[in-house]
Amino acid sequence: MLTRFAARNPGAEYTSVSGAWRLSSEQLAVLRALYEWRDETARSRDLPRNWVASDKALLQLAQRQPTAIAQLGSIDDLAPGSIRRYGAAMLQVIAGVCELESDDYPPTLPRPLSPAEGKQLKRLKAVITRCAERLQVAPEIIARRRDIEDVLRFGAASDCPLMSGWRFEECGRDVLSERDGEQ
Q1: Could you tell me if residue 110 is inside a domain?
Q2: Quick check: 88 pLDDT over 70?
Q3: Can you give the pLDDT at residue 98?
Q4: Burial letters for 93-112: b for 16+ Cβ neighbours within 10 Å, e otherwise?
Q5: Distance CA 55, CA 32 (A)
Q6: Which residue in 107, 95, 86 sits closest to 14, CA to CA?
Q7: What is the C-alpha to C-alpha distance for residues 33 and 61, in angstroms, rounded to an integer?
Q8: Strand ranges (DSSP E) for 15-108?
Q9: Which residue among 58, 100, 167, 171 is least crowded, i.e. fewest CB within 10 A of its CB?
Q10: What is the mean pLDDT of the chain?
C-alpha cells in the first residue's frame, strides 16, 4: 500500500526533509537536486543514504549554496569523509541548479500546522476513521495525512482525492462539515 501512495508524487520525497518548509523556491530546487543526487549515489554505491549525506546536511547546503570545497567545512552535519568523497559532486549539483530558470523551481512548501490546527486535524482524522470503519477499509485508502492537511488548509478547493469521486461522496462532505464546525 505504501508504494502506491509514494508513486503518486514521484520525485517529491525531498519535501519530507525536516525544515524544508522554511526554504525559498530556489533553495528547494537545490534541495531537490541534492536529494536526488544523494539517493542515486547511495544506490549506485550500495550505501545507506545518510552515509553519503544526512538530510540536515542537504538542508544546510540548500540554504547556504556553497561554491567552493572550503565552504563545505562550515556545514555542521556534513562529515569530512563526505566532503572528501563527494564535495566536488555536491558543488556541481548546486551550480547546476543555478542554471535553471526560476519557472523550473518548485513552489514553496506550506508551514507546519499550528497547535490549534493540529487539534482540528485530529478531529478530521477521527471522521475519516469512522467512515473507514463503516466502509470496512483502512483509513489510508480514504485519505492520507497530507490529504487531510490539504482539506484543513484549503477546504473544498483542495485538489486531493478526498474532495472528489467516491471518497467525497462517502466521507468528504462529513470532513468538510467537521472542518467548518457544522457537526
Answers
A1: no
A2: yes
A3: 79
A4: bbeebeeeeeeebbeebeee
A5: 11
A6: 107
A7: 11
A8: none
A9: 100
A10: 87
Write the CA distances from 138 to 41, 116, 166, integer angstroms: 36, 26, 15
Is the pLDDT score of 8 beyond 60?
no
Looking at the chain, how many residues does it have?
A: 183
Query: Mean of the pLDDT values across residues 19-35?
Result: 93
Q: Map residue 165 onto helix, strand or coil.
A: helix
pLDDT tops 60 at residue 2: no
**What does each C-alpha distance from 23 to 52, 54, 110, 129, 169 come to in angstroms?**
22, 17, 10, 33, 37
Q: Which CATH number belongs to the domain containing residue 142 in this structure?
A: 1.10.150.80
Cβ atoms of residues 97 and 30 within 8 Å: yes
| CA torsion angle 67 69 74 78 (round to 10) | 110
| Residue that has been written with the C-alpha cell 547546503 in this structure | 61
Secondary structure (3-state) at 154: helix
Q: Structural domain tally of the chain?
A: 2
Q: Which of 85, 64, 88, 86 is nearest to 76 (CA)?
A: 64
Give the confidence band of 182 by pLDDT, cuts at 50, 70, 90. low
pTM: 0.70
Last residue of a domain, one of 50, 81, 104: 104
Cell numbers that stand for 126 in this block: 477521527
